[in-house]
Amino acid sequence: MKLTEIVARNGLAITTEVAPPKGTDVTDCLEAARLAAPFVDAVNVTDGQGAVMRMAPLAVARLLLEEGITPVWQLTCRDRNRIALQGELLSAAALGVENALIVTGDHMVLGDHPDARPVFGLDSVQLLHVARDLAHGRDMAGNELSGAPDLCCGAVVAPEADNMQLQLIKLRKKIDAGAQFVQTQAVFDPPRFERFMREADDLGVPVLAGIIPVKSPRMARFMNARIPGVEVPPWIIQRLNEAEVEDRKHVATEIAGQIAGAVLGCCQGIHIMAQGWEEIIPELLAIAGVSRS
Amino acid sequence: MTMQRTVPTPIDRLVANLPETARVFVLGCGGCATDEGYGTPEACRETAEALAEHGVVVVGHAAPAAGEALCNRSVARRVLSSTDATVRADTLVVLACARAEPVLDGLFDGAIVSGVQTIVGDRTGGGARAIEDCNFCAEGGRACIASLTGGLCPHAFCPKGLINGPCGGAQAGRCEAMPNRPCVWELIHRRLKAAGRLDALATYHPPVSYRIAGSDES
User: Fold this and answer.
1) Cα–Cα distance between B179 and B202 in angstroms, integer?
2) What's the predicted TM-score (pTM) here?
3) What is the CATH number of domain A3-288?
4) Which pLDDT value is given to residue A161?
Protein backbone atom coordinates (compact mmCIF):
# COMPACT_ATOMS: atom_id res chain seq x y z
CA MET A 1 0.00 0.00 0.00
CA LYS A 2 1.13 3.55 -0.70
CA LEU A 3 2.27 5.61 2.26
CA THR A 4 -0.11 8.41 1.26
CA GLU A 5 -3.03 5.93 1.43
CA ILE A 6 -1.87 4.74 4.85
CA VAL A 7 -1.82 8.33 6.18
CA ALA A 8 -5.22 9.04 4.60
CA ARG A 9 -6.66 5.93 6.26
CA ASN A 10 -5.00 6.06 9.70
CA GLY A 11 -4.30 9.77 10.09
CA LEU A 12 -0.64 8.95 10.58
CA ALA A 13 2.03 6.49 9.49
CA ILE A 14 4.63 4.61 11.52
CA THR A 15 7.63 3.26 9.65
CA THR A 16 10.99 1.77 10.45
CA GLU A 17 13.97 0.64 8.42
CA VAL A 18 16.31 -2.28 7.82
CA ALA A 19 19.66 -2.38 6.07
CA PRO A 20 20.30 -5.10 3.46
CA PRO A 21 23.04 -7.56 4.43
CA LYS A 22 26.73 -7.31 3.67
CA GLY A 23 26.66 -10.63 1.84
CA THR A 24 23.92 -12.91 0.57
CA ASP A 25 22.51 -14.05 3.93
CA VAL A 26 19.24 -12.16 4.42
CA THR A 27 18.22 -14.02 7.62
CA ASP A 28 18.93 -11.25 10.15
CA CYS A 29 17.61 -8.53 7.92
CA LEU A 30 14.28 -10.30 7.36
CA GLU A 31 14.08 -11.25 11.04
CA ALA A 32 14.42 -7.58 12.02
CA ALA A 33 11.65 -6.64 9.57
CA ARG A 34 9.37 -9.45 10.86
CA LEU A 35 9.92 -8.32 14.45
CA ALA A 36 8.94 -4.74 13.61
CA ALA A 37 6.16 -5.47 11.12
CA PRO A 38 3.22 -5.93 13.56
CA PHE A 39 3.83 -2.44 14.99
CA VAL A 40 4.56 -0.41 11.85
CA ASP A 41 2.87 0.39 8.54
CA ALA A 42 5.93 0.04 6.35
CA VAL A 43 9.62 -0.83 6.46
CA ASN A 44 12.29 1.20 4.64
CA VAL A 45 15.10 -0.68 2.94
CA THR A 46 18.23 1.50 2.85
CA ASP A 47 20.42 1.90 -0.23
CA GLY A 48 24.11 1.68 0.58
CA GLN A 49 23.54 3.68 3.76
CA GLY A 50 26.64 5.55 4.89
CA ALA A 51 28.11 4.70 1.47
CA VAL A 52 28.78 1.14 2.66
CA MET A 53 28.48 -1.53 -0.04
CA ARG A 54 25.61 -3.93 0.68
CA MET A 55 23.03 -6.00 -1.17
CA ALA A 56 20.87 -3.87 -3.47
CA PRO A 57 17.74 -2.81 -1.55
CA LEU A 58 15.37 -3.80 -4.35
CA ALA A 59 16.06 -7.49 -3.63
CA VAL A 60 15.21 -7.03 0.05
CA ALA A 61 12.14 -4.92 -0.81
CA ARG A 62 10.82 -7.78 -2.94
CA LEU A 63 11.51 -10.32 -0.17
CA LEU A 64 9.54 -8.10 2.25
CA LEU A 65 6.60 -8.01 -0.16
CA GLU A 66 6.64 -11.83 -0.21
CA GLU A 67 6.37 -11.72 3.60
CA GLY A 68 3.36 -9.42 3.39
CA ILE A 69 5.36 -6.41 4.63
CA THR A 70 5.03 -3.04 2.85
CA PRO A 71 8.47 -1.78 1.82
CA VAL A 72 9.64 1.79 1.31
CA TRP A 73 12.47 1.25 -1.14
CA GLN A 74 15.30 3.79 -0.95
CA LEU A 75 17.11 4.94 -4.08
CA THR A 76 20.24 7.11 -4.00
CA CYS A 77 21.71 9.21 -6.80
CA ARG A 78 25.23 8.43 -5.65
CA ASP A 79 25.98 5.24 -7.55
CA ARG A 80 23.93 5.25 -10.74
CA ASN A 81 23.63 7.43 -13.80
CA ARG A 82 20.28 8.43 -15.30
CA ILE A 83 20.02 5.29 -17.41
CA ALA A 84 20.46 3.03 -14.37
CA LEU A 85 18.21 5.15 -12.12
CA GLN A 86 15.32 5.06 -14.57
CA GLY A 87 15.85 1.32 -15.06
CA GLU A 88 15.71 0.78 -11.29
CA LEU A 89 12.43 2.71 -11.00
CA LEU A 90 10.90 0.52 -13.73
CA SER A 91 12.23 -2.62 -12.01
CA ALA A 92 10.81 -1.61 -8.63
CA ALA A 93 7.35 -1.05 -10.06
CA ALA A 94 7.47 -4.38 -11.94
CA LEU A 95 8.34 -6.19 -8.69
CA GLY A 96 5.33 -4.67 -6.89
CA VAL A 97 7.11 -1.95 -4.89
CA GLU A 98 4.78 1.02 -4.33
CA ASN A 99 6.87 3.41 -2.21
CA ALA A 100 10.24 4.88 -3.12
CA LEU A 101 12.34 7.26 -1.05
CA ILE A 102 14.52 9.36 -3.33
CA VAL A 103 17.78 10.55 -1.76
CA THR A 104 21.07 12.06 -2.91
CA GLY A 105 23.14 9.67 -0.80
CA ASP A 106 26.08 10.06 1.58
CA HIS A 107 29.36 10.75 -0.19
CA MET A 108 31.56 7.68 -0.77
CA VAL A 109 34.43 9.12 1.26
CA LEU A 110 32.27 8.40 4.35
CA GLY A 111 31.91 4.70 3.53
CA ASP A 112 33.94 1.56 2.94
CA HIS A 113 34.68 2.20 -0.76
CA PRO A 114 36.11 5.74 -0.70
CA ASP A 115 37.84 5.19 -4.06
CA ALA A 116 34.55 4.61 -5.88
CA ARG A 117 33.65 7.02 -8.66
CA PRO A 118 31.02 9.48 -7.44
CA VAL A 119 28.17 9.53 -9.94
CA PHE A 120 25.56 12.05 -8.68
CA GLY A 121 24.56 12.58 -12.33
CA LEU A 122 21.09 13.59 -11.13
CA ASP A 123 20.28 15.11 -7.77
CA SER A 124 17.29 14.15 -5.64
CA VAL A 125 15.15 17.03 -6.96
CA GLN A 126 15.86 16.08 -10.56
CA LEU A 127 15.27 12.36 -9.89
CA LEU A 128 11.86 13.17 -8.38
CA HIS A 129 11.01 15.04 -11.60
CA VAL A 130 12.18 12.03 -13.62
CA ALA A 131 10.09 9.62 -11.52
CA ARG A 132 7.01 11.76 -12.14
CA ASP A 133 7.68 11.86 -15.88
CA LEU A 134 8.10 8.06 -15.89
CA ALA A 135 4.77 7.76 -14.08
CA HIS A 136 3.31 9.78 -16.95
CA GLY A 137 4.73 7.26 -19.40
CA ARG A 138 7.83 9.09 -20.68
CA ASP A 139 11.53 8.62 -20.00
CA MET A 140 14.06 11.47 -19.73
CA ALA A 141 14.72 11.34 -23.45
CA GLY A 142 11.00 11.71 -24.15
CA ASN A 143 10.56 8.10 -25.29
CA GLU A 144 7.24 6.44 -24.61
CA LEU A 145 7.12 3.58 -22.08
CA SER A 146 5.07 0.43 -22.32
CA GLY A 147 3.73 0.42 -18.79
CA ALA A 148 4.46 3.33 -16.45
CA PRO A 149 5.78 2.98 -12.86
CA ASP A 150 3.16 4.35 -10.47
CA LEU A 151 5.31 4.90 -7.37
CA CYS A 152 4.56 6.97 -4.28
CA CYS A 153 7.86 8.87 -4.12
CA GLY A 154 9.10 10.49 -0.95
CA ALA A 155 11.87 12.93 -0.14
CA VAL A 156 14.15 13.51 2.83
CA VAL A 157 15.11 16.62 4.76
CA ALA A 158 17.46 17.32 7.66
CA PRO A 159 15.39 19.58 9.95
CA GLU A 160 18.24 20.01 12.41
CA ALA A 161 20.85 20.86 9.78
CA ASP A 162 22.87 24.05 10.32
CA ASN A 163 20.96 26.03 7.76
CA MET A 164 17.21 25.47 8.11
CA GLN A 165 16.36 28.07 5.47
CA LEU A 166 18.40 26.30 2.78
CA GLN A 167 16.91 22.93 3.76
CA LEU A 168 13.39 24.34 3.43
CA ILE A 169 14.05 25.91 0.04
CA LYS A 170 15.31 22.59 -1.29
CA LEU A 171 12.44 20.70 0.34
CA ARG A 172 9.93 22.93 -1.45
CA LYS A 173 11.69 22.15 -4.73
CA LYS A 174 11.34 18.43 -3.96
CA ILE A 175 7.62 18.79 -3.33
CA ASP A 176 7.19 20.83 -6.51
CA ALA A 177 9.01 17.98 -8.25
CA GLY A 178 6.35 15.52 -7.07
CA ALA A 179 7.44 14.23 -3.65
CA GLN A 180 4.32 12.82 -1.99
CA PHE A 181 5.70 12.39 1.52
CA VAL A 182 8.67 13.60 3.53
CA GLN A 183 10.84 11.56 5.86
CA THR A 184 13.23 13.49 8.08
CA GLN A 185 16.71 12.89 9.37
CA ALA A 186 16.86 12.23 13.12
CA VAL A 187 15.03 14.69 15.35
CA PHE A 188 16.43 15.31 18.84
CA ASP A 189 15.12 18.78 19.59
CA PRO A 190 11.27 18.84 19.44
CA PRO A 191 10.92 22.66 19.85
CA ARG A 192 13.35 23.16 16.97
CA PHE A 193 11.41 20.61 14.89
CA GLU A 194 8.18 22.47 15.64
CA ARG A 195 9.80 25.67 14.40
CA PHE A 196 10.84 23.83 11.27
CA MET A 197 7.30 22.56 10.72
CA ARG A 198 5.84 26.04 11.32
CA GLU A 199 8.21 27.53 8.72
CA ALA A 200 7.26 24.73 6.33
CA ASP A 201 3.52 24.88 7.01
CA ASP A 202 2.34 24.90 3.40
CA LEU A 203 4.02 21.63 2.36
CA GLY A 204 0.76 19.82 1.65
CA VAL A 205 2.26 16.32 2.06
CA PRO A 206 2.64 14.10 5.14
CA VAL A 207 5.86 14.49 7.13
CA LEU A 208 7.34 11.57 9.09
CA ALA A 209 9.80 12.65 11.79
CA GLY A 210 12.95 10.55 12.09
CA ILE A 211 13.46 8.97 15.51
CA ILE A 212 16.70 7.26 16.54
CA PRO A 213 17.14 5.55 19.90
CA VAL A 214 20.68 6.51 20.88
CA LYS A 215 21.99 3.31 22.41
CA SER A 216 25.01 4.59 24.32
CA PRO A 217 27.21 7.65 24.88
CA ARG A 218 29.67 6.02 22.51
CA MET A 219 27.07 5.78 19.76
CA ALA A 220 26.21 9.46 20.35
CA ARG A 221 29.83 10.47 19.91
CA PHE A 222 30.11 8.33 16.77
CA MET A 223 26.95 9.86 15.31
CA ASN A 224 28.13 13.39 16.03
CA ALA A 225 31.46 12.70 14.39
CA ARG A 226 30.33 10.62 11.43
CA ILE A 227 26.65 10.92 10.56
CA PRO A 228 25.98 13.94 8.36
CA GLY A 229 23.22 16.30 9.50
CA VAL A 230 22.82 14.69 12.95
CA GLU A 231 23.71 16.26 16.28
CA VAL A 232 22.92 14.31 19.46
CA PRO A 233 22.46 16.96 22.18
CA PRO A 234 24.39 16.82 25.48
CA TRP A 235 21.28 16.14 27.61
CA ILE A 236 20.75 12.78 25.89
CA ILE A 237 24.39 11.81 26.36
CA GLN A 238 24.14 12.82 30.02
CA ARG A 239 21.00 10.76 30.67
CA LEU A 240 22.63 7.72 29.05
CA ASN A 241 25.79 8.28 31.06
CA GLU A 242 23.83 8.42 34.30
CA ALA A 243 21.92 5.22 33.57
CA GLU A 244 23.19 1.82 34.71
CA VAL A 245 24.54 -0.12 31.74
CA GLU A 246 21.84 -2.82 32.04
CA ASP A 247 19.20 -0.09 32.18
CA ARG A 248 20.42 1.77 29.10
CA LYS A 249 18.12 0.12 26.61
CA HIS A 250 15.10 1.20 28.62
CA VAL A 251 16.44 4.76 29.04
CA ALA A 252 17.25 5.03 25.33
CA THR A 253 13.74 3.81 24.48
CA GLU A 254 12.22 6.28 26.92
CA ILE A 255 14.15 9.21 25.42
CA ALA A 256 13.23 8.24 21.85
CA GLY A 257 9.59 7.65 22.83
CA GLN A 258 9.37 11.04 24.54
CA ILE A 259 10.80 12.80 21.50
CA ALA A 260 8.38 10.90 19.23
CA GLY A 261 5.44 11.82 21.46
CA ALA A 262 6.49 15.48 21.47
CA VAL A 263 6.78 15.78 17.68
CA LEU A 264 3.67 13.80 16.74
CA GLY A 265 1.54 16.84 17.50
CA CYS A 266 2.97 18.70 14.53
CA CYS A 267 3.60 16.00 11.91
CA GLN A 268 1.86 13.00 10.35
CA GLY A 269 3.98 10.14 11.61
CA ILE A 270 7.35 8.88 12.71
CA HIS A 271 10.11 6.90 11.08
CA ILE A 272 12.00 4.81 13.65
CA MET A 273 15.63 4.00 12.87
CA ALA A 274 16.01 1.22 15.45
CA GLN A 275 19.36 -0.09 14.15
CA GLY A 276 19.03 -3.64 15.43
CA TRP A 277 16.80 -2.82 18.40
CA GLU A 278 13.54 -3.60 16.62
CA GLU A 279 12.18 -5.23 19.81
CA ILE A 280 11.91 -1.82 21.53
CA ILE A 281 9.44 -0.46 18.95
CA PRO A 282 6.25 -1.41 20.87
CA GLU A 283 7.51 0.22 24.09
CA LEU A 284 8.75 3.28 22.20
CA LEU A 285 5.31 3.69 20.58
CA ALA A 286 3.53 3.23 23.90
CA ILE A 287 5.66 5.97 25.50
CA ALA A 288 4.94 8.19 22.48
CA GLY A 289 1.21 7.61 23.05
CA VAL A 290 0.62 5.78 19.76
CA SER A 291 -1.83 2.91 20.01
CA ARG A 292 -1.85 0.39 17.17
CA SER A 293 -5.09 -1.48 16.93
CA MET B 1 50.27 30.77 -20.49
CA THR B 2 46.93 29.19 -19.73
CA MET B 3 43.93 31.29 -20.35
CA GLN B 4 40.37 31.71 -19.15
CA ARG B 5 38.07 32.99 -21.88
CA THR B 6 35.40 35.39 -20.75
CA VAL B 7 32.61 37.46 -22.26
CA PRO B 8 30.91 40.42 -20.55
CA THR B 9 27.56 39.89 -18.85
CA PRO B 10 24.95 41.93 -20.78
CA ILE B 11 24.39 45.16 -18.87
CA ASP B 12 20.65 44.66 -18.22
CA ARG B 13 21.32 41.19 -16.80
CA LEU B 14 24.12 42.59 -14.66
CA VAL B 15 21.82 45.31 -13.30
CA ALA B 16 19.17 42.68 -12.54
CA ASN B 17 21.73 40.73 -10.50
CA LEU B 18 22.53 43.71 -8.26
CA PRO B 19 20.85 44.48 -4.94
CA GLU B 20 18.34 47.32 -5.42
CA THR B 21 20.14 49.66 -3.02
CA ALA B 22 23.64 48.58 -4.06
CA ARG B 23 26.63 50.89 -3.77
CA VAL B 24 28.86 49.37 -6.40
CA PHE B 25 32.61 49.27 -6.85
CA VAL B 26 33.77 47.92 -10.23
CA LEU B 27 36.89 45.79 -10.00
CA GLY B 28 38.95 44.70 -13.00
CA CYS B 29 41.63 42.06 -13.45
CA GLY B 30 45.06 42.33 -15.05
CA GLY B 31 45.18 38.63 -15.93
CA CYS B 32 43.21 36.71 -18.53
CA ALA B 33 40.33 39.21 -18.47
CA THR B 34 42.69 42.00 -19.54
CA ASP B 35 44.09 39.80 -22.31
CA GLU B 36 40.49 39.36 -23.40
CA GLY B 37 39.95 43.12 -23.19
CA TYR B 38 37.34 43.05 -20.37
CA GLY B 39 39.36 43.57 -17.19
CA THR B 40 41.25 46.77 -18.06
CA PRO B 41 40.93 50.15 -16.27
CA GLU B 42 39.20 51.43 -19.40
CA ALA B 43 36.68 48.55 -19.34
CA CYS B 44 36.03 49.18 -15.63
CA ARG B 45 35.29 52.84 -16.35
CA GLU B 46 32.93 51.90 -19.19
CA THR B 47 31.09 49.39 -17.02
CA ALA B 48 30.84 51.94 -14.19
CA GLU B 49 29.36 54.49 -16.62
CA ALA B 50 26.93 51.97 -18.09
CA LEU B 51 25.77 50.98 -14.60
CA ALA B 52 25.31 54.64 -13.62
CA GLU B 53 23.22 55.17 -16.77
CA HIS B 54 20.96 52.39 -15.51
CA GLY B 55 20.50 54.21 -12.21
CA VAL B 56 23.00 52.17 -10.18
CA VAL B 57 25.03 54.02 -7.53
CA VAL B 58 28.70 53.50 -8.42
CA VAL B 59 31.26 54.64 -5.82
CA GLY B 60 34.39 53.86 -7.81
CA HIS B 61 36.35 51.54 -10.04
CA ALA B 62 39.88 50.16 -10.20
CA ALA B 63 41.92 47.51 -11.99
CA PRO B 64 45.31 46.00 -11.21
CA ALA B 65 48.11 46.54 -13.73
CA ALA B 66 48.24 44.31 -16.79
CA GLY B 67 49.76 40.98 -15.83
CA GLU B 68 48.46 41.17 -12.25
CA ALA B 69 45.65 38.63 -11.95
CA LEU B 70 42.88 39.04 -9.40
CA CYS B 71 42.97 35.32 -8.62
CA ASN B 72 46.26 36.06 -6.88
CA ARG B 73 45.32 36.82 -3.30
CA SER B 74 47.96 39.46 -2.71
CA VAL B 75 46.97 41.32 -5.90
CA ALA B 76 43.33 41.22 -4.85
CA ARG B 77 44.14 42.50 -1.38
CA ARG B 78 46.34 45.30 -2.77
CA VAL B 79 43.79 46.59 -5.27
CA LEU B 80 40.96 46.46 -2.71
CA SER B 81 42.99 48.56 -0.26
CA SER B 82 44.25 51.00 -2.92
CA THR B 83 41.22 53.25 -2.47
CA ASP B 84 38.80 53.93 0.38
CA ALA B 85 35.95 53.72 -2.13
CA THR B 86 35.92 49.92 -1.61
CA VAL B 87 34.97 50.57 2.02
CA ARG B 88 31.99 52.70 0.99
CA ALA B 89 30.84 49.99 -1.44
CA ASP B 90 28.60 47.13 -0.39
CA THR B 91 28.75 45.34 -3.72
CA LEU B 92 31.66 44.40 -5.97
CA VAL B 93 31.10 44.01 -9.69
CA VAL B 94 34.03 41.88 -10.77
CA LEU B 95 35.35 41.93 -14.33
CA ALA B 96 37.36 38.72 -13.97
CA CYS B 97 36.82 35.03 -14.58
CA ALA B 98 35.18 32.70 -12.04
CA ARG B 99 38.59 31.99 -10.52
CA ALA B 100 38.72 35.40 -8.81
CA GLU B 101 35.51 34.97 -6.86
CA PRO B 102 36.62 32.49 -4.19
CA VAL B 103 39.68 34.70 -3.54
CA LEU B 104 37.59 37.86 -3.14
CA ASP B 105 35.10 36.05 -0.94
CA GLY B 106 37.55 36.07 1.95
CA LEU B 107 38.54 39.71 1.43
CA PHE B 108 35.25 41.56 0.90
CA ASP B 109 32.21 41.41 3.18
CA GLY B 110 29.45 42.53 0.83
CA ALA B 111 27.88 41.04 -2.28
CA ILE B 112 30.12 39.95 -5.12
CA VAL B 113 28.56 39.97 -8.58
CA SER B 114 30.37 38.77 -11.66
CA GLY B 115 30.42 41.20 -14.57
CA VAL B 116 31.73 38.60 -17.01
CA GLN B 117 30.94 34.99 -17.78
CA THR B 118 33.66 32.39 -18.04
CA ILE B 119 33.15 30.36 -21.19
CA VAL B 120 36.28 28.27 -21.56
CA GLY B 121 39.52 27.79 -19.73
CA ASP B 122 42.14 25.56 -18.22
CA ARG B 123 41.44 24.34 -14.74
CA THR B 124 45.15 23.94 -13.90
CA GLY B 125 46.21 27.41 -14.90
CA GLY B 126 46.49 30.91 -13.53
CA GLY B 127 45.02 30.91 -10.09
CA ALA B 128 46.67 30.96 -6.72
CA ARG B 129 44.33 28.25 -5.43
CA ALA B 130 43.86 24.70 -6.59
CA ILE B 131 40.09 24.85 -6.47
CA GLU B 132 37.59 23.70 -9.06
CA ASP B 133 35.56 26.80 -9.64
CA CYS B 134 34.15 26.40 -13.13
CA ASN B 135 33.25 23.40 -15.28
CA PHE B 136 33.01 25.62 -18.36
CA CYS B 137 29.44 24.53 -19.05
CA ALA B 138 28.82 27.52 -21.30
CA GLU B 139 31.59 26.29 -23.60
CA GLY B 140 29.34 23.59 -25.02
CA GLY B 141 26.32 25.86 -25.17
CA ARG B 142 25.03 24.45 -21.86
CA ALA B 143 23.44 26.74 -19.30
CA CYS B 144 25.77 28.47 -16.83
CA ILE B 145 23.85 28.89 -13.56
CA ALA B 146 26.44 31.03 -11.76
CA SER B 147 24.43 34.23 -12.21
CA LEU B 148 21.74 32.62 -10.00
CA THR B 149 24.20 31.25 -7.43
CA GLY B 150 26.13 34.36 -6.45
CA GLY B 151 28.88 33.75 -9.01
CA LEU B 152 29.97 30.52 -7.31
CA CYS B 153 29.36 27.35 -9.30
CA PRO B 154 27.96 24.60 -7.04
CA HIS B 155 28.35 22.05 -9.82
CA ALA B 156 32.11 22.56 -9.81
CA PHE B 157 32.59 23.27 -6.12
CA CYS B 158 30.31 20.67 -4.43
CA PRO B 159 31.79 17.12 -4.34
CA LYS B 160 28.29 15.85 -5.21
CA GLY B 161 27.83 18.48 -7.91
CA LEU B 162 24.49 19.48 -6.35
CA ILE B 163 22.93 22.38 -8.26
CA ASN B 164 19.48 22.46 -6.64
CA GLY B 165 20.58 23.10 -3.08
CA PRO B 166 22.73 21.47 -0.40
CA CYS B 167 22.58 17.93 0.91
CA GLY B 168 21.85 17.72 4.63
CA GLY B 169 25.40 16.78 5.48
CA ALA B 170 27.21 20.05 6.18
CA GLN B 171 28.45 20.38 9.75
CA ALA B 172 29.14 23.86 11.12
CA GLY B 173 29.09 25.09 7.53
CA ARG B 174 31.75 22.58 6.46
CA CYS B 175 31.42 20.11 3.59
CA GLU B 176 30.44 16.53 4.51
CA ALA B 177 33.00 15.04 2.12
CA MET B 178 35.79 17.60 2.51
CA PRO B 179 35.61 19.03 6.04
CA ASN B 180 38.48 21.45 5.37
CA ARG B 181 36.28 23.25 2.85
CA PRO B 182 33.14 25.30 3.40
CA CYS B 183 29.85 24.00 2.02
CA VAL B 184 29.51 26.03 -1.18
CA TRP B 185 25.77 26.38 -0.54
CA GLU B 186 26.54 28.24 2.68
CA LEU B 187 28.67 30.68 0.68
CA ILE B 188 25.99 30.99 -2.02
CA HIS B 189 23.30 31.57 0.60
CA ARG B 190 25.36 34.30 2.26
CA ARG B 191 26.10 36.06 -1.02
CA LEU B 192 22.53 35.95 -2.31
CA LYS B 193 21.28 37.19 1.06
CA ALA B 194 23.73 40.11 0.90
CA ALA B 195 22.55 40.82 -2.65
CA GLY B 196 18.85 40.60 -1.70
CA ARG B 197 18.47 37.79 -4.22
CA LEU B 198 17.41 34.84 -2.03
CA ASP B 199 14.53 34.31 -4.47
CA ALA B 200 17.11 32.94 -6.94
CA LEU B 201 17.55 29.88 -4.69
CA ALA B 202 14.05 28.66 -5.57
CA THR B 203 14.96 28.20 -9.24
CA TYR B 204 14.80 24.59 -10.42
CA HIS B 205 17.88 23.60 -12.41
CA PRO B 206 17.30 20.65 -14.76
CA PRO B 207 19.92 17.90 -15.13
CA VAL B 208 23.33 18.84 -16.52
CA SER B 209 24.27 17.39 -19.91
CA TYR B 210 27.34 15.17 -19.81
CA ARG B 211 27.37 14.57 -23.55
CA ILE B 212 30.95 14.63 -24.81
CA ALA B 213 31.81 17.50 -27.12
CA GLY B 214 31.96 16.45 -30.75
CA SER B 215 29.99 13.22 -30.24
CA ASP B 216 27.24 14.37 -32.60
CA GLU B 217 29.56 15.55 -35.39
CA SER B 218 29.65 13.20 -38.35
Assistant:
1) 26
2) 0.79
3) 3.20.20.220
4) 87
The answer to whether the Cβ–Cβ distance between B169 and A120 falls below 8 Å is no
Q: Give me the domain span that covers residue B50.
A: 1-144+203-218
Q: What's the gap in Å between the CA of B164 and the closest CA on chain A?
A: 7
Task: Please indicate if any CB of chain A lies within 8 Å of the CB of B67.
Answer: no
Q: What is the CATH number of the domain that holds B131?
A: 3.40.50
Around Cβ A37, how many Cβ atoms within 10 Å? Answer: 19
ipTM over 0.90: yes
Same domain (yes/no): B60, B150: no
Q: Does B150 lie in the same domain as B63?
A: no
- A123 contacts in B (CB within 8 Å)? 160-164
The predicted structure's pLDDT at residue A5: 98
Q: Which residue from A123, A156, A231 is facing B163, i.e. has the nearest CB?
A: A123
- Tell whether B98 and B171 lie within a shared domain: no
Number of domains forming the structure of chain B: 2
Q: In the prediction, which pLDDT does B2 show?
A: 47
Mean pLDDT across A209-233 = 90
Cβ-defined contact of B169 to A157 (cutoff 8 Å): no
Give the per-residue pLDDT at B125. Answer: 40
CB of B161 within 8 Å of any CB in chain A? yes
User: Chain A contact for B160, CB < 8 A?
Assistant: yes
Q: Which residue has the higher pLDDT, A53 or B73?
A: A53
Same domain, B131 and B184: no
Q: Given a cut of 70, is residue B122 above it in pLDDT?
A: no
Both B217 and B184 in one domain: the answer is no
The C-alpha of A152 sits at a distance from chain B's nearest C-alpha, in angstroms, of: 21
Domain definitions of chain A by residue range: 3-288
Residues B88 and B107 in one domain: yes
pLDDT digits (tens, 9 = 90+) for B21-72: 889 999 998 887 777 778 889 999 999 999 999 999 999 999 988 888 888 8
User: Is there a contact between B60 and B47 (Cβ–Cβ < 8 Å)?
Assistant: no
Residue A84: which residues within 8 A CB-CB, separation 6 or more? none
